[in-house]
Every structure is written in structure tokens, then in C-alpha cells.
Specification:
Length: about 400
């Protein structure tokens, strides 16, 4: 039996359906984090398939874990410290498979990875939003508050050290780290961040919109005669480095462009701050997407985009990137991103280092990506099509 521990996100509806396509529902049980309908988000998880809600009490989850057979597999998506400690404290010997989602390894502990996750301007914003601040400009009569601020900052740093210690203990329990084929760099990154990790690399593929995007017709590619439509980022999280990206784009793009920026989910304080900045500094070029869009509507919107700019320093927005490439669009990324390394490794031609942007003729780039779309699709099909997903899934769940 396989036990899949899944967060409440609509993305995983498709994962469950893949198991059913293999007719393996009798060998797989889906444990959903939290209680039914306790996430008031528009991206709420919803399925008609039988699932079990785990609740939020650690003791209840540990009791469930101890009741399974020692040979059963545990397959986890979003391996945060809480679920890691549940598995660790249950003291069960079951093989543990964990998919690297990104934030569960890179962002769970406040500020510990800020130096490499965030660029200069975003780092300042993140510090202001998420870490205790000390106001040294208080009047002498308020020095007591300065002392209190210093104590709070010291306590915050101590808590970070303790959180990292706990996280490393749970990461050491992982037997297999799962990510895309040819993405060994992601596993190596996790092991550098958590030296206690000695997990083996295992392949998995999730639904990244490849099959849906293959046959979608797109408008003529950008030729310089109209406004350039740019997709910037994928969410309202600071890992997008929005402001740093905008400052680069202002220097690198032709004068006639506008930015479509998905901000319909993420961190609201950060979203509010960036919305204010974008309206002030970009004016009419700034077109934020603040309303939730159904999956197919979102893919159709991406078909109208000319180029995508993803300014993340870590794995993020993989679905957006695969969709844009499948649609025959060029994607600009940080060269230090493991996704950039992965896509170059498998032979994708139309992924560019974002620092090249100012030196390229974008009309030539966009037309080349469109002309080469069949070849791009052929490469991606080997890794991200439904057929490939189900092959990886079959190996994982033991069909």
C-alpha cells in the first residue's frame, strides 16, 4: 500500500487522477493535510475521489502512521517540519519518498536562506516584512522599547537556529528525494543546505500543463510592430524578486511593453507592497493579475504572452515555464536556477539567461521560438507528457 500525504491545493487533484488512470486506486490511500474545507483559498483542493483528511493534531497523525504496515510506502508532498516530525516521532521504518516542492526546503525557516533567495531590493523588503525591526530613532523616553526590540531580535535569531536544527533532523529521515528526470542539481542543492540528508534521487513528473498546451493556437509572434507582452513571475511571493526584475527590465526591454504579473495568490503584505510600487514606478505598463483564474483560462492567457521572465533564484514556477515553452514562447531566467540548468541539459534552445535580455533582438527571439515549437514539444514530451508522467508514477507506486 502507498500512503500519499498531500497539502490542500487544487494542483494535486491532477496527481490523484494520474493514479486512477493507472487503475491503482486500490493500492493507494490519499491523506490530505488539515480538515475538509479549512482552507478559505480559491486554489482549494477538491476531488470526488475517496480521500482521508488528517486533521491538524500531531498525536492523531502519529497514531495513523503507526497503524500502517512496515513495508508500505509514504509519499509526501510539502515536507515541512511538522509532517517531518510526525514521521520521525512515529519511529516507523517505512520507506519515505519526498517530492521537492521548493518552499518546503528553502523558505520554511524565516530568513535563513534570504541571502541567496532574494536579490538586493527584495531582501530589504523581506527583512522589513518578516523579521523583527529595531527602531533606533526613538526618543530617549522610548529607549525601553529599543531594548525590547533588541531582545525580540535576539529571540528571533535563536528560534531560527532551533528551527534549522529540527528541520535537519527531519530531512535526515528521508530515503528518497523526488524531482524531474535530469534534475540532480536540485537534490544536490538540498543536500548542501541540509548536510544530514543522504537520500537517493528518484524521478517523478507532475502535471505541468504540457498536454493541454500542445494543441493551443497562439497569435503571431512579436515582430516589433506592437507592444511587447511580458509575463513576470508566477505569484505574490517575494521569491519572484519582482522589484529587482522590474529594474532590470526597465533597462533591457524596448520602450513599448507592458508586464502581466500574476498576484492572485501568495503573501498579501508583500503583494500590497509590490502593487503600490508597480503602480508608482511602472504606470500603465504594469498590469497585475489579482483575480484567480481557472487553469484553462490561465493557459489561454499565457498563449497571448510574448516572453516570460522568471527572476527566481530557486525552483519555482515550473508549470508556467513548461507551459510557455510548449506554447512556443521564449523564457528568460536566472542562470543559477536549477530549472535553467535542467532545461539546458535536456536540450531546450529557447531558455535564456535573463542578463542577455538587453543584448538580444526580441522579435528574432520570439519568431525563432515559434518556428522551433514542434522541436521543443518533442523534447518536452519525453519528460512531461501524460505518458511520461504515468511511467514515472507506475515506477513509484509499484504497478
Amino acid at each position: 500500500m502507498n500512503y500519499h500525504i498531500i497539502p490542500q491545493d487544487s494542483f494535486f487533484t491532477f496527481y490523484i487522477e494520474d493514479v486512477y488512470k493507472l487503475h491503482q486506486e486500490h493500492n493507494n490511500i490519499f491523506w490530505i493535510r488539515g480538515n475538509e474545507n479549512d482552507e478559505p483559498d480559491k486554489r482549494i483542493f477538491s476531488t470526488n475521489r475517496p480521500v482521508v483528511y488528517l486533521g491538524t493534531e500531531k498525536g492523531d497523525i502519529i497514531r495513523r502512521l503507526r497503524a500502517i504496515h512496515p513495508n508500505d510506502k509514504i509519499i509526501v508532498f510539502w515536507y515541512d517540519t511538522f509532517i517531518g516530525e510526525c514521521i520521525l516521532e512515529s519511529a516507523i521504518p517505512n520507506p519515505l519518498y519526498v517530492t521537492i516542492m521548493g518552499g518546503d526546503f528553502y523558505n520554511e525557516i524565516d530568513s535563513i536562506n534570504d541571502k541567496w533567495l532574494y536579490d538586493r531590493h527584495t531582501r530589504r523588503i523581506a527583512s522589513r516584512l518578516y523579521t523583527p525591526q529595531i527602531n533606533f530613532h526613538r526618543k530617549p523616553s522610548n529607549w525601553g522599547k529599543i531594548i525590547a526590540d533588541c531582545r525580540e531580535k535576539r529571540k528571533f535569531k535563536k528560534n531560527i537556529a532551533e528551527a534549522y536544527r529540527r528541520k535537519e533532523q527531519t530531512v535526515a529521515r528521508i530515503n528518497y528525494l523526488m524531482t524531474s528526470e535530469c534534475n540532480e542539481a536540485e537534490v544536490d542543492l538540498v543536500k548542501r543546505l541540509y548536510p544530514s540528508c543522504h537520500a537517493e534521487y528518484c524521478c517523478i513528473a507532475l502535471n505541468q500543463n504540457f498536454d493541454t498546451s500542445c494543441d493551443i493556437a497562439t497569435p503571431p509572434p512579436y515582430d516589433g510592430s506592437r507592444s511587447l507582452k511580458v509575463l513576470l513571475g508566477n505569484s505574490a511571493y517575494p521569491m519572484n524578486n519582482h522589484i529587482d526584475a522590474c529594474l532590470l527590465l526597465q533597462r533591457s526591454l524596448p520602450a513599448d511593453y507592458f508586464l502581466l504579473t500574476p498576484l492572485s495568490y501568495g503573501d498579501k503584505p508583500y503583494a500590497d507592497l509590490f502593487l503600490k510600487w508597480g503602480k508608482k514606478h511602472l504606470g500603465k505598463k504594469f498590469q497585475p493579475i489579482t483575480d484567480y483564474m481557472a487553469r484553462q483560462d490561465y493557459i489561454n492567457m499565457l498563449a497571448s504572452i510574448d516572453i516570460a521572465v522568471m527572476f527566481h533564484n530557486r525552483q519555482q514556477a515550473f508549470g508556467n515555464i513548461i507551459t510557455m515553452l510548449t506554447l512556443g514562447k521564449p523564457v528568460f531566467m536566472k542562470s543559477q536556477s536549477v530549472i535553467y540548468t535542467l532545461l539546458k541539459k535536456i536540450g531546450i534552445a529557447h531558455v535564456y539567461d535573463v542578463q542577455q535580455l538587453r543584448h538580444l533582438d526580441l522579435s528574432t527571439v520570439c519568431q525563432a521560438a515559434r518556428a522551433d515549437r514542434p522541436n521543443t514539444i518533442a523534447i518536452l514530451r519525453r519528460y512531461y507528457s501524460e505518458e511520461s508522467r504515468l511511467r514515472y508514477m507506475s515506477d513509484l507506486i509499484g504497478c
